[in-house]
Amino acid sequence: MSETSTYTVVGMTCGHCVASVSEEVGAIAGVENVDVDLASGRVTVTSGSPVDEAQVKAAVEEAGYALAPTA
Amino acid sequence: MSETSTYTVVGMTCGHCVASVSEEVGAIAGVENVDVDLASGRVTVTSGSPVDEAQVKAAVEEAGYALAPTA
Predict the structure, then answer these.
(1) Contact residues, chain A to chain B, C-beta under 8 Å
(2) Which domains does chain A have, with CATH numbers?
(3) What is the reported pLDDT for B22?
(4) Which helix (H) or strand (E) holds A66?
(5) A5: distance to nearest CA of chain B, Å?
(6) Signal peptide location in the record (chains A, B) (predicted)?
(7) ipTM given for this complex
């Protein structure tokens, strides 16, 4: 069974940005798939077990972007 | 002695775009230096001998961008 979590990333402007975020988030242990939508900034993370949001935040920041503040 | 030519590239939105253009244009035979300004799109090419504009155009397009139409 897989867990799916969705985040919103701000600051991505092009396909290279998408690739950078995908690469960093995809490198988190347990992550099986990362889907990034450039237009909306929506990042969907599929993993075998729940991934700590702090790890996702760190990966996004490592790529050079930021998570949108949660409402 | 070096030749310097300046072009305007449209479509670059971030540092990754700058890096892609620099890499492709820098790979043209004879090119010694490429300076790219993201904000203006200005690309300055320094080479040992004049570089054919068609080669610069092709390199920019290979990177996924376009030369601005000349006035």
Answers:
(1) 13-17, 19-20, 64
(2) 3-48+56-67 (3.30.70.100)
(3) 97
(4) strand A66-67
(5) 27
(6) none
(7) 0.71
